[in-house]
Amino acid sequence: MAIQEMEQQVEDLKEDMAKLRGDLTNIFQSLLDAGKAEAGEVRQQIESKAMEQLESLKGAVQATRERGQQAVEKLGHRVEQNPMMSVLGALGIGFMLGVILDRSGRR
Question: Is the pTM of this model over 0.85?
Answer without folding.
Answer: no
